[in-house]
Amino acid sequence: METTSKITQKWMLCAFGSFISCFIFLLYLKHNNEAVNFRALRHAMFNMASSLDDSFSPHGNLEISKPARRREDEGDIIQKNSRNKCNIFEGRWIYQSTESPYYEASQCPFLSEQVSCQKNGRPDFDYENWSWEAHDCVIPRFNGRDMLRRLRGKRVIIVGDSLNRNQWESLACLLYSTIPPSRTHLDLSSGYYKVFKAKDYNVTVEFYWNPFLVQFDSINAPKVLRLEKLDLSSQHWQGADIMVFNTGHWWVHRGKFKAWDLFEYKGRLVDELKLESAFEVAMRTWANWIDQNVNLTKTTVFFRSISPEHKGQNGCYNKTQPITDMSYVTHFSESLTKIVDRTLSKMKVPVRYLNITKLSQHRVDAHPSVYAKKKGQELIKRKLKPPQSISDCSHWCLPGMPDTWNRLLYASLLLDHPIDSPSLSHLVS
Which residues are CB-contacts of 400 (< 8 A; sequence separation ≥ 6)? Predict the structure, then answer.
């Protein structure tokens, strides 16, 4: 017994020595700015720490601290104050230095060049470590396997502009990175339609590109936006179990970025129509379709609020920290937001409002900036224009901000379906 104990102690010391060697090696890599490798190895280091800790006796002299272990089926939203409703969209950003992002970008080879910031040369990665904390409740981390179990046999559609494609890429990667790649199916052949499928769960997550939600004829001249007709892809929306919609950004484009020439309204082509009036007609067209075609016993509908841009005087170039001034407010597309609020309030079908605008507006650090590619060329290598003028301050790096949107989508599903999680039965959604 004594010999066995000595052997065990020697093994423990050997393991600990290996752990320390890895730690020193990681510091060396970090010092040499090998950011991507450092992050990947740090994941391995935490996993090794967990394994070593499992092997040590709880009464031994040697302890290794590690991140708190979370249950595989964790899905609890804990109320902080029973007098308040659980509003998951009101809170603050907390920097979690030891909390790794949900996935490494290299785990999801289908991420577009537009959002693959580390691959495109971004040298910092602190933007990946900010976590959203609600004021009145504790929101669980996104759990990919739990999400897949809850979605078993179901179909999720995400419809909208490139910001909703940003969200689709995030959700697809969050789920893809939790299961073997061989047990997935991806169809990325079209820029207008993308699909991820988890075979063992029979779960599909589809993206339909339609920045206006209504029909847009961009092939013929003049280019016509048909305000009273839904996009033709709507024939494929019906029957989905979860729907996530957005629109807004393309409506406010001006000059050479304006997409349409004329509106089609009440059977006539018109150009003298106030933008807000046109947007309200289009939103009503979408709302009428939802009210007439959605089966309340089967489908949950979300509308994601507008994602804020940071294109102002300083933009997002060279920004590596969030905006800490809590009084900071952006008024980007405020008039359109009021129309969305008014439209949703009049609908027969209850639509969950994924209100990410306010919490996203402080994350000026989380955009691709010059660490994106356009037409195959990295923006940072375009020397003809100042970097501030070509920075992408609309979309978001992945891993990054859209992962929080999907974490809140996950939390909203937990709140809306407490029967799946008994610990939520006391909450008011």
Answer: 101, 115, 117, 127, 128, 170, 366
Ramachandran angles phi, psi of 284, nearest 5°: -65, -35
- Is 116 considered catalytic here? no
Amino acid, single-letter form, for residue 8: T
Q: Residue 56's pLDDT is what?
A: 30
**Positions in the chain short of pLDDT 70:** 1-84, 313, 375-378, 380-384, 416-429
Distance separating alpha carbons of residues 240 and 228, to the nearest angstrom: 23
Among candidate residues 362, 395, 403, 421, the one labeled active-site is: 395
395 is catalytic: yes
Query: Is position 392 annotated as part of the catalytic site?
Result: yes
pLDDT at 61 (0 to 100):
29
DSSP line for 61-108:
S-----PPP--TT----EES-TTS---TTSEEEEE-TT---SS-GGG-
How far apart, in whole angstroms, are the C-alpha atoms of residue 105 and residue 129? Answer: 14
Which of 391, 392, 394, 421 is labelled catalytic? Answer: 392
For residue range 153-194, what is the model confidence (pLDDT) as tens digits?
A: 999 999 999 999 999 999 999 999 999 999 999 999 898 999
Q: Which position among 116, 162, 369, 421 bears the catalytic label?
A: 162
Q: What dihedral do alpha carbons 199, 203, 208, 214 form, nearest 10°?
A: 150
Q: Is 168 helix (H, G, I), strand (E, B) or coil?
A: helix
Give the tokens for residue 129.
Answer: 């470590």
